[in-house]
Amino acid sequence: MPESGDEPGFGALGLPEAIVAELGRRGVTTPFPIQAATIPDALSGKDVLGRGRTGSGKTLSFGLPLLVGLSADGRTTTAKRPRGLILTPTRELAMQVADALDPYARILGLEMKVVCGGTSMQRQIEALKQGVDVLVATPGRLRDLIDRNLCGLDEVSIAVLDEADQMADMGFLPEVTAILDLVPAGGQRMLFSATLEREIDTLVKRYLDKPVTHEVDPSAGAVTTMSHHVLVVKPNTKAPVTAAIAGRKGRTIVFVRTQMGADRVADQLRQAGVRADALHGGMTQQARTGVLEDFKEGKVDALVATDVAARGIHVDGIDLVMNVDPARDGKDYLHRAGRTARAGRSGTVVTLALPHQRKTVFGMLERVDVDVSRHLVNGTFDEELVRITGARSLTDMEADTVAREAEATQREAEELSARAESLAAKAARLSGEAARLRDRAEKERSGEIAVEAPRRQYRDRPPRGDRERKPYRGQGTGRREERDRDRPRRDDRGGGRREFRGHGRFDDRPRRGGDTRGDRAGWRENRGGGGDRRGHDRGGRHFDRSAPRSFDRGDRSFDRGDRWRDRRNED
Description:
- There is one protein chain.
- By secondary structure, the chain is of the alpha/beta class.
- Among the domains are: about 10-215, 3-Layer(aba) Sandwich (Rossmann fold); about 220-395, P-loop containing nucleotide triphosphate hydrolases (Rossmann fold, 3-Layer(aba) Sandwich).
- The chain contains 20 helices and 18 strands.
- It has a 7-stranded parallel beta sheet, sandwiched between helices.
- The N and C termini lie far apart (about 100 Å).
């Protein structure tokens, strides 16, 4: 961001000192025109209508006043009821908005959550249950959560609609209007867009109350640091020219019209030696995020994208945008061109046009007032092509590929060399230890030194029989010793085993009815009745369990008591 001593800083706009200090730590000291114009009005609670091209700093324009307003109202966020809402058209833009505002939300003690498709809904539900102050959402996923009664908007006091024109182009206006109808009236509304057309005017009249309008930035095509070129190519040279431009040094975004076209062009570029990857709406959110990260980290030089997936892209250092397929209209062209020349930097936009497309392309650019230069390209070695785009031949790209492989191989060789040195040092140490042990063994055999006894883990431990018994728990209190002293031993209880349950130290124990267990028959007789359950007549046979347990089975007689005693004696 450019700095100027004549321009006021963020502190003059009314932002808290903590926010201004965090902006300074991140190198953001001088506000962009859209920020300087809209932040004071937004902080005062007015409805704001702002127009600025992509990359002009609109995120901080609405994000910082929203965070400051929520932190100052003194309200507490309840479960499933956010207090601030930011609607964005794409997942990438929602994540970028959240990433840009999250440091300042943390300073103010606010929780922020992204709600969009392609990500885990369960995690979003859990976050809403715990309480989210600011919700950054795409219309489709948010409407789904609302229909399931998992999110309510009846406590939203500040609502922001970002990239409203893109939502209209993508057909999101029905979802947007249905969501905004659920937001209570009387709160603050802010709408930001790159263009203000008929669909946007409808939203403004329906939801904004006396908005303050700021149009401070020119369109993307009028940026003075951006140059526009139309390259007229023949059908048989379009693919080689595309590869030559994409193989240039630097980051390049290549725009195509369809998802299949993005995959096809990316494959062609990789076959030509260009580090390229595709990005479109048909990919999972995890895959799209991975591709963007590779592009930001420099692992991918050329990103082949469609209009839907590319509008939310914000990557620093993109100095060339190439339209392999011309944009459908001037609005799409401006959105594509806005990926370069961001934050005051320079950039180049080139459009490849076949001979029968020249008239359509030139007419479209004239309608959006873009000053464009025209070039007829005869081949990949055309001087104009190299001068404008920095295109390189396939041989140059192949040389770079081989050079990268050589660097990777060299790094691998260095890693292997370092490991080999470490292993060699370890081998030397082990060899020295082995020589020392051999020398000692030789001296032991010759009697020069005494043979050491085997090492014991417990060298001073006494023999097992001489060890002092470890005191058990409670010993030393006196209570357990006194109890054990009066406690009869096993030999005092009438023998190791009791012969009958009625003998031993239980002889004088009282039983029911005043009887003892030794006189079981008398106990049964006193119960009354014609015999008890244990001794009664069953068909002429009288069973009395108190009688000796003997039975006559033919010529064999069994005495259970004797057999039990014999077995006891054998034991």
